[in-house]
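check this one:
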Amino acid sequence: MDIPVIFVTTKESVLDRVMGLKLGADDYIVKPFEAIELLARIEVALRHYNKSEEVIKFSHIQVYPNQRIVKVNEELIDITFKEYDLLILFIRNKNIALSRNQILERVWGYDYSGETRTVDIHVQRLREKLNLKEHIKTIFKVVYRLEE
């Protein structure tokens, strides 16, 4: 994951600045400074990172992870946090069979104590909202697999 880095330090020599930038900093600011300057530098760093925003594509779906946005054929689709996490899990594990327990652990967490039917309900919603009926396969009523 790309995260902008700004060094905030008291070291003000040119060599220190050059070393900080060579180590991977996107910016370097020396104390003391005004808060407004730091905020401006943060905004610039974030603007640069948002320009190269990652887009994950699957079939007719575009996922923008930095914004947690899902589009189908360029149309914004409203999905819940868990539906989003489930979609990402499926896309990153394309053509791999995932059991309900694997899905529960990865999307809901290891300590989830609810009913396993929640996976089935969320899969059903994803199929409907994102037109994935032909892509999310149920295998022996035990596992799911996203296929292209």
Notes: The first strand starts at residue 6 and ends at 9.
